[in-house]
Design the sequence.
């Protein structure tokens, strides 16, 4: 928000240069940025709209930070001349409008406002309109209270109704925009129709113009949530709406009104006729007990009680004597400091004014209970180490997807039309990565570890993708299959098995589906695993087995089988038929789908196997294969 | 043959020896039982005493010299066993993959915090309004929520009475108008962790977060954060400063680093502050932090009078960009191996 340095300086005459102010406020108060000319940009904290998002507020902060004196704003002390006010004000929903102040003025003429005032409005990004409107805006900039002036003659029935709009009730705002309101919109209406969207924008009907001689000035307070919803719905983030929707104290209306009245008297010769102030439940300042010991414990300092009191007084808090036990004291919180609700809020006030950079630094003293890493964190690390050593590089993809899917969550506010859903797998992203990188690399091996989202829940997945140009059919798939197998072994899984399903393999353990492998043409293959289902099987317990004392005997078995028979079936048959002496079977040569060679390794831990014994075992296997698959030894 | 000739011939021949086998034949040829020098020495007996006195020591010296030279040659051949290939050719690269830079940096961050006894935990990316906002003292319909531009999810229709994430439902009262979202920060894990653990503890929470935001070189819809939370009986802001400075000194080890703490506002901490570091000439804001707000303790069913602590959050993407001088945040999720293979 734009602020005027010269207006702040008017309120704190001893203020140092603009640069020094910016630096000091940044270190002690809130984020401020230097800008061109007279402009200072204040990034106002969301909870300080009652007391800091105004020139007076910033000046008060600056005075506290530099320990200077603050000049209070001059307000009007005029009392209405007449007896009972003729203007009738009625609030239909007091919970949406905690306070409504209105004053009726007679003015000499609506001219232009003085140049100085116009310049400050311009500095703060507001457009000068006429003296009355400019005074409203200027007083808001000074005090933080939004103000509005109506032409009293245009208010039908001399009545102001603060009420909810009727369904589809229209209003035309000052900028000639038409809005159709709903029953949740809070409006200011006259006897007939809305003359303003409450707390958001004034209406055209009762606009102050050059002929206006009698005005109603409104200084009111509206419910934060109601205003927030209204401006969001209408898309009207006006200055007033922003302020009200942050929540400002109803105490502020009188300062705003008093200041506006003073300026009206001085600049347009206004004479007060009537005053209304509907404020059924006045907000009172609170009292909070301050515990210096607790302060020092929280901040880790050894500050003296007197130093703390000094900072609080500088910030405008009143210290109450006669407090309870020991070192503690009571602090009276002014009504406009509605950001201060608990002791810790006061702790911040003292600590920041002292300066966070000046505070002590000290190591925490804790018991050395061993720190642990979550199981998922360790699992992901292990997978990464294995895969990177196996030549796979890690990619990160977005969690969004373009694919509609009965399992997928849909976003209410997608960032793009191709990002309307949450991903239910990693495959989609990895497929795209393989394609994108194919332009630059002949061999691509990638993986991703990430969460996917299904209506049934969030799952941690591992996705793998491989694309190898210039390879023989099947090699790519088998390379990925080997990687997945060895990864699972490496993670301590042994009981898993692959189940063929068309061009893909499902990975099962204990009748649970862990994931699958997919062949995508000759050059590409993909795999995806649900790591959440995997974690319960990760035993990773090793147990020593004696190193074999007796030699191993190898036999190569070249087979000819009918086409269409899968190697996996023959492998399982061999393993099922063999004795305990068969240590290992490997496919060492694959000529075509009917001709291939297995290497069988026989070894006993009892004795050296004789050729005769090995041959007998081999024959048993061969005859079984012949009988079962009609396989012939070549 | 004269002894001088023998020396000249022998040394010239030794120079031409290229491998151990040749060296062995050479040794046999000159120093073997029937070797020429051995023969020569044997024949010394046949010479006159005068001749023996002059030639003898020379021959003995040559024998020692040859033995020494053979030994030297042997070692030389061991170092350079053969010259059948060019050892200056480039080495064969093992086929290794590359970790994503964000993984590398996150791992380094975890390592430093683990060394300071911080446990590492993770939490769900799909969150409820309750954990992302309400429990963190960020009220509904408050402009403060706009600091966290949020991706909201359409609530899936209940199928056969079974709705997603019964755990989410129970805790957040989704039935009462609570909505599902993609977490806008890692802070929801503060609540989740405290709901199931008792102080004292100290944790960090790395993870993916989401913001509904137009992307450019420094803004992303998807980025990684690391949350920190330390709670105990007397954990102070001074402790926070210690931990955070230790962390950044190690993370940017070898670089000169300065710290600056600036007042800031986050509804879930009080006091709240930002941490800026200076590397070289520039101040960089790298962390939001503060003392845990009593309302947050209450949301997690702690008595705020019993415990105090600090919380912080930082962007893993941002720290990676600073550390590896990555100019554009969008590179991280491009899947481009020309980028990833650099790390």
Sequence:
């Amino acid at each position: 928000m734009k602020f005027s340095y010269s207006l702040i300086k008017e309120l704190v005459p001893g203020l140092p240069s603009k640069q020094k102010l910016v630096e000091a406020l940044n270190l002690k108060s809130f984020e401020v940025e230097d800008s061109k000319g007279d402009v200072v940009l204040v990034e106002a904290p969301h909870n300080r709209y009652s007391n800091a998002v105004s020139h007076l507020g910033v000046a008060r902060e600056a005075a506290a930070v530099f320990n200077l004196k603050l000049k209070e704003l001059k307000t009007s002390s005029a009392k209405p001349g007449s007896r009972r006010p003729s203007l009738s004000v009625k609030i239909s929903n007091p919970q949406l409008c905690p306070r409504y102040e209105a004053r009726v003025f007679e003015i000499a003429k609506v001219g232009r406002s003085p140049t100085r005032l116009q310049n400050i409005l311009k500095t703060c990004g507001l457009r000068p309109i006429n003296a009355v409107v400019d005074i409203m805006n200027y007083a808001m900039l000074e005090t933080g209270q939004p103000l509005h002036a109506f032409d009293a003659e245009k208010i039908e029935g001399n009545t102001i109704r603060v009420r909810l709009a009727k369904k589809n009730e229209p209003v035309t705002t000052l900028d000639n925009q038409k809005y159709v309101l709903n029953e949740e919109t809070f409006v200011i209406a006259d006897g007939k129709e809305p003359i303003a969207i409450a707390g958001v924008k004034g209406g055209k009907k009762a606009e102050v113009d050059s002929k206006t001689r009698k005005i109603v000035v409104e200084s009111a307070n509206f419910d934060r949530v109601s205003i927030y919803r209204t401006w969001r719905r209408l898309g009207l983030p006006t200055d007033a709406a922003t302020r009200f929707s942050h929540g400002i104290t109803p105490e502020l209306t009188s300062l705003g009104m008093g200041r506006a009245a003073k300026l009206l008297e001085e600049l347009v010769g206004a004479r007060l006729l009537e005053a209304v102030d509907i404020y059924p439940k006045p907000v009172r300042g609170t009292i909070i007990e301050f515990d210096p010991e607790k302060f020092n414990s929280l901040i880790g300092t050894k500050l003296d009680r007197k130093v703390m009191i000094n900072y609080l007084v500088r910030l405008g808090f009143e210290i109450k004597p006669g407090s309870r036990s020991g070192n503690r004291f009571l602090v009276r919180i002014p009504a406009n400091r509605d950001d201060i609700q608990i002791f810790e809020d006061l702790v911040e006030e003292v600590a920041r004014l002292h300066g966070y950079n000046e505070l002590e630094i000290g190591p925490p003293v804790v018991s050395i209970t061993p720190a642990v890493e979550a199981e998922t964190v360790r699992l992901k690390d292990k997978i990464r180490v294995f895969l990177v050593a196996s030549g796979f590089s890690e990619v990160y993809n977005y969690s969004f997807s373009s694919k509609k899917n009965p399992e997928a969550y849909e976003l209410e506010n997608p960032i793009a039309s191709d990002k309307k859903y949450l991903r239910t797998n990693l495959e989609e992203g990895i497929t795209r990565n393989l394609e994108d990188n194919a332009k630059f690399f002949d061999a691509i091996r990638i993986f991703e570890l990430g969460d996917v989202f299904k209506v049934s829940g969030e799952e941690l997945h591992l996705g793998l993708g491989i694309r190898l140009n210039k390879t023989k059919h099947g090699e790519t798939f088998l390379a990925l299959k080997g990687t997945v197998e060895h990864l699972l072994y490496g993670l301590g899984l042994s009981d898993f098995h692959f189940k063929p399903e068309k061009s893909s393999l499902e990975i099962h353990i204990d009748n649970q589906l862990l994931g699958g492998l997919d062949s995508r043409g000759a050059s590409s293959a993909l795999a995806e695993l649900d790591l959440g289902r995997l974690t319960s099987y990760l035993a990773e317990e090793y147990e020593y087995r004696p190193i074999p004392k007796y030699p191993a005997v190898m036999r190569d078995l070249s087979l000819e089988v009918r086409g269409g028979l899968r190697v996996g079936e023959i492998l399982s048959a061999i393993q099922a038929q063999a004795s305990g002496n068969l240590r290992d079977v490997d496919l060492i040569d694959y000529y075509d789908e009917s001709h291939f060679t297995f290497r069988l390794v026989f070894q006993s831990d009892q004795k050296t196997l004789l050729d005769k014994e090995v041959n007998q075992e081999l024959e048993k296997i061969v005859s079984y294969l012949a009988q079962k698959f009609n396989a012939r030894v070549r | 043959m004269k002894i001088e000739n023998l020396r000249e011939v022998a040394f010239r021949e030794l120079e031409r020896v290229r491998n151990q086998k040749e060296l062995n034949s050479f040794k046999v040829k000159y120093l073997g039982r029937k070797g020429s020098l051995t023969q020569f020495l044997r024949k010394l007996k046949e010479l006159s005493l005068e001749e023996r006195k002059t030639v003898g020591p020379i021959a003995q010296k040559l024998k020692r010299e040859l033995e020494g030279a053979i030994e030297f040659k042997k070692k030389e051949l061991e170092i350079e066993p053969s010259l059948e290939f060019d050892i200056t050719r480039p080495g064969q690269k093992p086929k290794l993959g590359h970790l994503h830079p964000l993984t590398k940096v996150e791992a380094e961050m975890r390592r430093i915090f683990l060394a300071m006894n911080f446990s590492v935990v993770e939490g769900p990316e799909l969150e409820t309004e309750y954990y992302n906002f309400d429990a963190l003292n960020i009220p509904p319909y408050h402009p403060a929520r706009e600091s966290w531009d949020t991706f909201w999810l359409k609530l899936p229709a209940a199928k056969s009475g079974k709705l997603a994430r019964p755990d989410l439902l129970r805790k957040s009262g989704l039935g009462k108008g609570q909505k599902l979202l993609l977490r806008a920060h890692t802070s929801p894990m503060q609540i989740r962790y405290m709901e199931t653990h008792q102080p004292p503890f100290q944790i960090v929470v790395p993870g993916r977060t989401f913001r509904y935001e137009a992307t450019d070189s420094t803004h992303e819809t998807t980025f990684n954060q690391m949350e920190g939370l330390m709670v105990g009986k007397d954990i102070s802001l001074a402790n926070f400063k210690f931990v955070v400075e230790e962390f950044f000194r190690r993370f940017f080890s070898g670089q000169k680093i300065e710290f600056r703490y600036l007042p800031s506002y986050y509804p879930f901490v009080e006091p709240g502050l930002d941490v800026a570091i200076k590397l070289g000439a520039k101040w960089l804001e790298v962390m939001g932090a503060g003392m845990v707000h009593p309302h947050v303790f209450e949301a997690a069913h702690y008595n705020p009078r019993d415990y105090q602590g600090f919380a912080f959050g930082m962007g893993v993407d941002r720290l990676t960009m600073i550390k590896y001088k990555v100019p554009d945040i969008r590179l991280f999720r491009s899947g481009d191996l020309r980028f990833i293979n650099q790390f």
